[in-house]
Amino acid sequence: MSEDQVVTGPGSTTRRSLFAGAGAVGATVVLAACGGDDGSPDGGTSTPGTAPTGGGDTGGGVTLGSTADVPVGGGVIFAAQQVVVTQPTAGDFKAFSSICTHQQCPVSRIEGGMINCTCHNSRFSIEDGAPQGGPATAPLQSKTVTVQGDNIVLG
What we know:
It holds the Pfam family Rieske. This protein has one helix at 15-33, and strands at 5-8, 62-66, 75-78, 83-89, 92-97, 109-111, 114-117, 122-125, 131-133, 142-143, 145-148, 151-154. The chain is mainly beta. The radius of gyration is 15 Å and the shape is globular.
C-alpha cells in the first residue's frame, strides 16, 4: 500500500491516517496550482493515464492498488487521484470521487458502511455513493474501476 492511501473499515481509522490523507490532499492542491493550462503539473508533457503518485500505468488506466488493500464493508481513499474505492460485498468493487458534493471537502474516512466527510458531517453509501445524512444532497460522482488480476485499475 502506498502513502497516499487511507484504508478505512471497521476499527481502522487512526489519527495518523487522517493527517496523512489530509497532507496528501494539500500537496495535490499545491501541485495543481503549479500546473500548466491543460491541467498537467509539468505544463503539458505528462502522458495521459499516468498517476503523479502511487500506482503504475497499465495502458488502460492507473493502477490504484491491490484488491487485498480494500476491506469488505469498507474502503480506501486514494487522495492523490481523488478517488475512494469501496468493497460493499466480497469481490464487488465500487469507486467514487473523494470530493464531497456539499462544499468540495475531501472525504476522510469510511466507517459503518458510510463514506464520511468530516468537514460538515455528510455521509454517503459505500454501495452507490448516495447521500445518507448531513448537508450533502447529491451523490458522490461514480468512477470506473476494473479488477485486473489482483489490481484495482482506475479508468
